[in-house]
Design goal:
Layout (H helix, E strand, L loop, with lengths): L1 H15 L2 H16 L10 H37 L3 H5 L5 H37 L4 H10 L4 E4 L7 H13 L9 H16 L1 E2 L4 E7 L13 E5 L1 E3 L7 E9 L2 E9 L5 E5 L8 E8 L7 E3 L5 E6 L3 H29 L2 H16 L1 H8 L3 H8 L19 H20 L1 H4 L3 H6 L6 H29 L9
Antiparallel strand pairs: 1-11, 2-10, 3-9, 4-8, 4-11, 5-10, 6-7, 6-9
Helix pairs in contact: 1-5, 2-3, 2-5, 3-5, 3-9, 3-10, 5-9, 5-16, 7-8, 9-10, 9-16, 11-13, 12-13
């Protein structure tokens, strides 16, 4: 351990003498202190909180990620170019300890800067909330819905597989299915159509959602506020509002609210006084619209129940810990790239990684579609043009289908390889008051903070042992 600490201390001194660290410190301070002063939000405390947390921490972590990757690439490759690494390699120091020392130095810098920006972001948030002049009731509601740690409960989806299969067989018997379309694609389309029917509410009709509530801790046996969030669309594009009655029933208590809302916007309601130990809650949504418009809800997220599951301070600390684990993995990737490649090539690949992460939503969505559906949707783009009088474009060629298949596996491979980074939604959860489970933090600590860095360290150690390094020129 003394050798690892010595290498880390030397790397830390070298980094602190660099002007890059000073510039990075100034940028992080600006993100945590100066940037929040420019926020205006949408006029609501909820919007201001979300904007503040998403942008201050998001921009700071983005800057830290770039700097961590660059510093990691330079930790070994730059020393190899300067012929100073060879002076260390000739000493009786295990190669693995060299890698661990460089990595530990980056972790210390990231921990210091992230703690600094986290403290500044929290302090400026609470100060500006007090100075913004928001209505007291709106601010109190925002503390319950956004500046909180809420557990989201979703109603289970109905089992419709038998109905979907029956409808598919009926359409096939009547020869109403489109040709040259895979069965999986058709079944998925029928499944979505069935769910759309089940989660639509005609004028004057109502629909009920039943939620299985988690058992609260003994300290939370008293009545707790319950938050309901819903978002629905209207069958009339010109409709500017929807009128409905929403009733929440739990443990023998029922609270009903008449509401007027905008279609397509997220609505949040807080219900007080419901018993926390009721095992189920039922929400009944009645469409009372005056324009004869049918309302459509997303089956999974159209209407959800959220209830307190901890404090915002604990959730904030878990979010910072998760962001630190992300930086730890970036540091491991950077040091490994610097071990395997020269500084320019390693830096280029680091920038490619950042670009891929910026497209994380698109890559994750494309990779999780089944192969037949992906090929069916992408291959027609390679079918070429067709005459103006043709009834339909020609079927995709074999080459177009092969290219679409290769693209699918490229997306799939990228998603599987970088999944811990692509699916990180820490800031989204924090800025919407969603609880970050400690179990997920423990899993990420093992994955991003231990297993993956250890694998990269073993790879780098093997390369350091086998790679031929040019010796410093003799004077």
């Amino acid at each position: 351990m003394s050798q690892i600490a010595a290498i880390a201390l030397l790397a830390l001194r070298t980094a602190l003498r660099s002007r890059v660290i000073l510039v990075l410190l100034l940028l992080v301070l600006a993100a945590g202190f100066l940037l929040p002063l420019a926020f205006r939000g949408d006029g609501t405390p909820e919007g201001f909180i979300r904007l503040h947390l998403s942008y201050t921490l998001g921009i700071a972590v983005f800057l830290l990620s770039l700097a961590t990757l660059w510093a990691g690439c330079a930790a070994i490759s730059q020393e190899a170019d300067d012929k100073t690494l060879q002076l260390l390699l000739v000493k009786p120091v295990p190669r693995l300890r060299i890698w661990l020392g460089k990595w530990l130095a980056l972790l210390l810098i990231d921990a210091l800067l992230l703690a600094l920006v986290g403290a500044l972001s929290a302090a400026t948030l609470f100060v500006q909330l007090r100075r913004a002049g928001f209505d007291a009731d709106a601010l109190a509601a925002a503390r319950q819905t956004t500046l909180a740690s809420l557990q989201t409960v979703r109603a289970p989806l109905p089992d419709i597989e038998a109905d979907v299969r029956a409808e598919y067989e009926t359409l096939r018997a009547r020869r109403l299915l489109p040709p040259n379309v895979a069965e999986a694609v058709l079944l998925d389309s029928l499944r979505r159509t069935q769910l759309a029917r089940l989660y639509s509410i005609a004028p004057g009709a109502a629909r009920a959602w039943t939620f299985d509530r988690p058992r609260p801790a003994e300290s939370r046996a008293a009545p707790q506020p319950v938050v309901l969030q819903f978002k629905c669309d209207s069958s009339l594009p010109a409709a500017t509002d929807l009128r409905a009655t929403l009733a929440l029933q739990a443990g023998g208590e029922t609270i009903a609210r008449d509401l007027l809302a905008l279609p397509g916007s997220l609505q949040t309601l807080v219900f007080e006084g419901l018993p926390a130990d009721a095992p189920q809650a039922t929400v009944t949504f009645s469409n009372r619209g005056t324009r004869a418009a049918t309302l459509f809800f997303d089956p999974a997220d159209g209407l959800v129940l959220r209830q307190p599951a901890g404090s915002f301070a604990g959730n904030y600390l878990r979010a910072l810990a998760q962001l630190f684990l992300r930086l730890a993995l970036f540091a491991a990737i950077g040091v490994t790239l610097g071990t395997l490649l020269s500084m320019p090539v390693a830096t280029f690949l680091a920038l490619v990684l950042i670009l891929i992460l910026q497209l994380s939503g698109f890559i994750s969505a494309a990779a999780q579609v089944d192969r037949e559906t992906f090929v069916q949707n992408v291959a027609p783009f390679g079918a070429g043009g067709h005459a103006h009088g043709d009834a339909e474009p020609p079927a995709p060629s074999l080459a177009a289908r092969a290219a679409a298949t290769a693209l699918f596996y490229a997306y799939r491979g990228t998603w599987l390889t970088l999944r811990p980074l692509l699916e990180d939604r820490t800031l989204d959860a924090l800025s919407t008051g969603t609880r970050l489970p400690p179990r997920d933090l423990l899993r990420n600590a093992l994955q991003q903070g231990l297993v993956l860095p250890l694998l990269l360290a073993l790879l780098s150690a093997a390369v350091l042992r086998r790679r031929e390094w040019a010796l410093p020129a003799a004077n």
